[in-house]
């Protein structure tokens, strides 16, 4: 059993392809690839912390995705019968993580790591995938090659000694994901 985080799939959201310059020709292809990426990585026994914006039709998509999904509500989610949180504190590998959809919802006095989505790939300098100085990670799907991220891989990044950590560039991020 593994633990993963991801955000901002926006299934069935046609305009997200244009807004975030996603490499998909249409929503059917986007939906198919995102669901396949998810299910090829996540087993039914894995846990996924989904940090918001699955779809306006959330209840339709949930049965199509593997894993035990813990939802943090995003501004595009519509839940009817699904339990969700507005934020969540996760202890993993001895470290506390504040999980939220929007980075501005991270409490100013939070001194642990924070994982968020919402900003997609719109502010890569201000909201990169991994930001050691402010202890933050942006797991919007555009920032993670459209795949969920294993928490063990995040722990590997965090635990690397800072002076030995090469600057993270998009083509090098994927080496950490298992």
Commentary on this structure:
This protein has 178 residues and is of the alpha/beta class. The chain is built from 5 helices and 10 strands. It is globular. The C terminus is likely disordered.
Spell out the blueprint of helices and strands.
Elements: E1 3-6, H1 14-19, H2 27-41, E2 47-50, H3 58-61, E3 68-72, E4 84-85, E5 87-92, E6 95-100, E7 113-116, E8 130-131, E9 136-138, E10 149-150, H4 151-159, H5 170-173
Parallel strand pairs: 1-2, 2-3, 3-4, 6-7, 7-9
Antiparallel strand pairs: 1-10, 5-6, 8-9
Helix content: 10-25%
Can you list the strand order of the major beta sheet? Answer: 4-3-2-1-10
Structural class of the secondary structure composition? alpha/beta
What's the count of strands?
A: 10
Strand content: 15-25%
The rounded Rg comes to 15 Å
Question: Helical stretch count?
Answer: 5
Which H/E pattern describes the elements? EHHEHEEEEEEEEHH
How far apart, in Å, are the first and last alpha carbons?
13 Å
Residue ranges: pLDDT <50 for 5 or more in a row? 163-178
**Largest β sheet strand count, sense and barrel closure:** 5 strands, mixed
What is the typical, i.e. mean, pLDDT? 88
Overall geometry: globular
């Amino acid at each position: 059993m593994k633990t993963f985080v991801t955000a901002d799939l926006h299934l069935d959201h046609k305009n997200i392809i244009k807004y975030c310059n996603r490499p998909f020709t249409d929503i059917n292809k986007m939906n198919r690839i995102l669901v396949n990426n998810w299910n090829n990585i996540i087993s039914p026994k894995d846990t996924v912390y989904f940090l918001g914006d699955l779809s306006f039709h959330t209840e339709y998509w949930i049965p199509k995705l593997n894993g035990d999904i813990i939802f943090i509500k995003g501004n595009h989610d519509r839940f009817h019968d699904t339990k969700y949180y507005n934020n969540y504190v996760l202890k993993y590998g001895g470290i506390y993580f504040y999980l939220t959809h929007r980075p501005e919802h991270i409490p100013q006095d939070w001194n642990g790591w924070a994982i968020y989505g919402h900003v997609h790939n719109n502010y890569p300098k201000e909201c990169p995938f991994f930001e050691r100085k402010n202890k933050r990670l942006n797991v919007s799907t555009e920032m993670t090659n459209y795949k969920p991220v294993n928490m063990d891989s995040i722990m590997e990044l965090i635990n690397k000694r800072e002076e030995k950590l090469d600057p993270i560039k998009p083509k090098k991020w994927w080496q950490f994901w298992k």
